[in-house]
Amino acid sequence: MALHSDLTKITDRIVERSAPTRSAYLARMEAACRKGPSRGHLSCSGQAHAFAAAGPDQDALATGQAGNLGIVTAYNDMLSAHQPYERYPQLIRDAVRANGGTAQVAGGVPAMCDGVTQGEAGMELSLFSRDLIAMATGVALSHNTFDAAVFLGVCDKIVPGLVIGAQVFGHLPAVFIPAGPMTSGLQNDEKAKVRQQFAAGECGRDALMAAEMAAYHGPGTCTFYGTANTNQMLMEFMGLHLPASSFINPGAEIRDALTVEAAHRALGMSDLSENYTPVCDILSEKAFVNGMVGLMATGGSTNLLIHLVAMARAGGIILDWQDFSEISDIVPLLARVYPNGLADVNHFHAAGGLGYMIGQLLDAGMLHPDTKTVAGEGLHHYTQEPVMENGALEWRAGTKESLNEGILRPASNPFATSGGLKRLAGNLGTSVIKVSAVDPAHHIIEAPVRVFHGQEEVKAAFKAGEFTSDVIVVVRFQGPKANGMPELHSLTPMLGILQGRGHKVALVTDGRMSGASGKVPAAIHVSPEALDGGAIAYLQDGDVLRLDATQGTLEILTEGVMQRVAATADMTDNQFGTGRELFAPFRNAVGSADTGATVFGS
């Protein structure tokens, strides 16, 4: 089917907008490719340093006859999603050695868990960790002794940071290797119910702990459809994972086979082969449009409205939130995965998963079919699925029918005719909202505001019984320049309780919400932020806001607000402790949320 005309217009607009920066980036990548890896002309001392610990691979490296694969890993065994990576380097070394190549761990990058730091001081490092990961990736590959690279990472800031770093070395082929989700435990809606009961004082911490441990119980990604699993979706839609590899559980035989195949593919795309495919060619304007389509069709994480902008800019491509909003208007919502439904990602994968969805969107003219990928030319490869036949990895056509239309629907019968995310604009600034999990009855909220300068203040007001009517809770001085733009997901249970009592409730903030944003409407990423003099800094208790997710507006209805003196906040306590003092240069340099909240310039 022909590509949707609006998708063509949006893509053309992005190409035109990006032309100067994209052409300059591609010129740099071409020059880097011509220079090639430096190991061939390292001094003898340099080579000795680079190959000293390579054991049986020393001779192959020293003679320069074999392709050398760099491994950048986010392994640690505190993150359930990253614990499986402990075994991957040896699997990869053995795999490429069998084909005459070599592989070395080029370096590690930090990886933190938002689930652990949620509502804690450490969350103020979370967003900045993305750019730190990109920088660490740059350090890992700076020895310039590699012909290709593989990237081991899953969770919220890790994949975007690795993608940014990979694009700095965009002349190299890159394959991203997933670890897969943990097996299903306590259903996510049951876990959320216990959280609400605890917030309301209806159960004790022992019951809360038991529910959490039953939900998060083993190695692998958390099973709800938050930022981590949205990242995995994007890597397939954008062509950096092997097809249908994202949601296969750790420990499965096919999981190891896919890891081995990914290593082979990476070196098979190097400049030493006839199939040279650098990552700068894969991550084109069309690939990013495909990623945005996937984000909307799955009702994915709001965090990607920041990350995709930053990821694209690393390759000279300029996206803005209007692009996302216009794509959302035309892309149908095909999936219901918690918090947008009751199913988890294991159920989604079993119902047909990403392969079925990509096939549906291709047939509907909603994806660019002609992108380059690590699986070959064309996105049609991503309608296939891997299987083990007599101990060998093979590929077959994926299902053309949804195996559960309560989870995954065809494009001809979607859950909604538009996507799950929306840009809001108005006299409060620009913001975004995730509507895929919000009941249409709550898409328009007009109410007086209560203004807070931190989530702990909101929790204290809730415990004191101060919310007794319709309210829009405004939490400001939570932007990237103020305190690193922490997620405010710990407010979800109490806001859900207020909504359950029959009140009209919404959240408005210059901070972030979790990628698992749920049933309470939340206008987030408000830009300009309060610390930058945005209109949110002028609000006072009792002012009336109107949030209209249908029309895409967020308006101050009270007159004279901007004639006031802007509020200020004492941010001293946000500058020290839990490592925050080390990130002052990031707070001073970071750009606005709508330009990716990155320290690498706008």
UniProtKB/TrEMBL annotation:
[4Fe-4S] cluster binds at C155, C222. Residues 69-380 form the Dihydroxy-acid/6-phosphogluconate dehydratase N-terminal domain. Its cofactor is [4Fe-4S] cluster. GO terms for molecular function: 4 iron, 4 sulfur cluster binding; metal ion binding; phosphogluconate dehydratase activity. Binds 1 [4Fe-4S] cluster. It comes from the Bacteria. Keywords: 4Fe-4S, Carbohydrate metabolism, Gluconate utilization, Iron, Iron-sulfur, Lyase, Metal-binding. InterPro entries: 6-phosphgluc_deHydtase (IPR004786), Dihydro-acid_dehy_C (IPR042096), DiOHA_6PGluconate_deHydtase_CS (IPR020558), ILV_EDD_C (IPR056740), ILV_EDD_N (IPR000581), IlvD/EDD_N (IPR037237). Pathway: Carbohydrate metabolism; Entner-Doudoroff pathway. Residues 407-597 form the Dihydroxy-acid/6-phosphogluconate dehydratase C-terminal domain. GO terms for cellular component: cytosol. GO terms for biological process: D-gluconate metabolic process; Entner-Doudoroff pathway through 6-phosphogluconate. PANTHER family: D-XYLONATE DEHYDRATASE, PHOSPHOGLUCONATE DEHYDRATASE. Catalyzes the dehydration of 6-phospho-D-gluconate to 2-dehydro-3-deoxy-6-phospho-D-gluconate. This is Phosphogluconate dehydratase.
